[in-house]
Write the structure tokens for this entry.
Amino acid sequence: MNVINVFKGVKGRVIMQSKKMVITVPAKATAYFKKGSGDLGILLLHGFTGTPAEMRYIAEKLNNAGATVYVPRYPGHGTSLVEMANTSADHWFTAAREALFELKSQCREVYIAGLSMGGIFAILLAEEFDIKKIALMSVPCTLKEKTIYVTPLVGRFKKIIWIPNKTKGVCDEQARKEHICYDDGIPVIQSWQLFKTIKKAMQVLPDVAAQSLIIQSKNDNVIPKHSAEYIYQHLGSEHKHLIWLTKSDHAITVDYEKDEVAHHCIDFFLKQ
């Protein structure tokens, strides 16, 4: 999810420009499924404007440890911002739910890991389907930008605000070059829908009993700094663990500490 400072353009500095729609999904950004050696399945959910590529490394590590893994791709992600602007949060969450059903049909037990918006979906799915374990990585408790409140109005006139995101939420320069996400703009109405979905997830936190692993970097420049602590304090789970990273930005699954993230996920999902 890369929404930091994207609405500065609402005040007049963003120049709208035409963009060529790209509908071919890069190979690394396609959905990823791989059968494991046991009966455990782990659903991994990517973030807003991201793709399955940002969950691929963690998924491969979990699969090597024995889990069946599935990383679905939401509608409008990995293709073009124009296409994304014609989808909605309901479409994305429906894709996540359907992926959960598919994995449940093949595995005796299913856990969920989510990055950013994917973690928001994990919270909602855990509350709805009584998932026993969830890993929440770089999950926001709200959006930082106060200009989010004007997006319903702005969305009547602009579908997309074209503004570059130079860091892509990644500190590691090589990983940043390889990170597949929309880095040239933000769909306006969809950002408002994301905001409302986050709010809904925060409201159900006390009803989530799943064992929870919460990971956030102190260097995360995308979401509010207190997000992990807020989620930890309000989760209804009796078994929850909060881990802070220090070298990564928002996309911790691909950044400097991705191996540490993978290690914590393997230990949490398969050894505890």
Remarks:
- The two ends are 29 Å apart (CA to CA).
